[in-house]
Write a structure and sequence with these properties.
This protein is an alpha/beta fold and 276 residues long. The chain contains nine helices and nine strands. It has a seven-stranded parallel beta sheet, with helices on both faces. The mean pLDDT is 94.
């Protein structure tokens, strides 16, 4: 028996990195997962890994910023598994620059993927959740506690130089979390966010100034962190190291289990004791 047996989860950006580990963790506890990635192959690989471990998953590929994606994402869960219990808004990337060099395109792209996309997904999910709650009440059945976990960052709680766009978006995620926790309490939905600190992923492990890039819908975005800065940040972490994607997924999992059914509107910092 898994902690999340019979639950249906959607996890954006779950083909790679932290999102993949979140999908694997939820599936390992019995949830049926709709996996999303910008590219088809990573999404298929995560689905295959879940199925190989005895779990259930289906892919819904595409950019979370596309018109109509949110509705398609939610509908995939309903059509495939008959409902929706857990929403994890994880998809995103960074596109850094100091403010005097940051373009409108950089600003808009990061706000769109980190803040507008979660807003759209939650908006698309509301009719599904409201209808399920109404049906349960009409039948005299208990309304289960559903879960929303939005992914934030320490950049959203304390700011980060060179990331005005990302810091603003993640601060917005925390505000969105608090607002929707107040709107959706009547549906017995908890809404929380997890703010990650230094987590070792392909985006943070790539040296800044090198050739590291990610392809975002045909646009090559340079990524990377100065190795010296990363080392200094890790030394500031009380636990003495950066976190792993699996550890990051564990923090998200805490908000998905019954033991957190009376916790809502909160931002949990997953940073090894480091905070800004």
């Amino acid at each position: 028996m898994g902690t999340l047996d019979d639950k249906v989860a959607i996890v954006s950006g779950s083909g790679r990195g932290i999102g993949r580990e979140i999908a694997l963790k939820l599936a390992s506890e019995g949830a049926r997962v709709v996996v999303n990635d910008l590219d088809a192959e990573p999404a298929k690989e995560t689905v295959a890994a879940i199925e190989a471990a005895g779990g259930a998953a289906v892919a819904c590929t595409g950019s979370v910023t596309e018109e109509g994606f949110a509705e398609r994402f939610v509908q995939t869960a309903v059509d495939t598994y008959g409902g929706l219990d857990i929403i994890v808004n994880n998809a995103g990337y960074t596109w850094d620059s100091v403010i005097q060099k940051m373009t409108d395109e950089q600003w808009d792209a990061i706000l769109d993927v980190h803040l507008k996309a979660p807003f759209r997904i939650l908006r698309a999910a509301q009719p599904v959740i409201a209808a399920a709650v109404k049906k349960a009440k009409a039948a005299g059945e208990p309304v289960p506690c559903r879960k929303v976990v939005n992914i934030s960052s320490l950049a959203g709680t304390g700011g980060n130089a060179g990331q005005a766009n990302y810091s603003s978006a993640k601060a917005g995620v925390n505000g969105l979390t608090k607002a929707i926790s107040k709107e959706w309490g009547r549906y017995n939905v908890t809404v929380n966010s997890v703010a990650f600190g230094v987590i070792k992923t392909r985006l943070t492990e790539t040296p800044a100034g090198g050739d590291g890039t990610i392809d975002v819908q045909g646009k090559e975005i340079k990524v990377g962190v100065n190795p010296g800065l990363l080392s200094a940040m890790e030394q500031m972490v009380p636990l003495g190291r950066g976190g792993t994607p699996a550890e990051a997924a564990g923090a998200v999992y805490l908000f998905c289990i019954p033991e957190s059914n009376y916790v809502s509107g909160q931002t949990l910092v997953c940073g090894g004791g480091f905070n800004i």
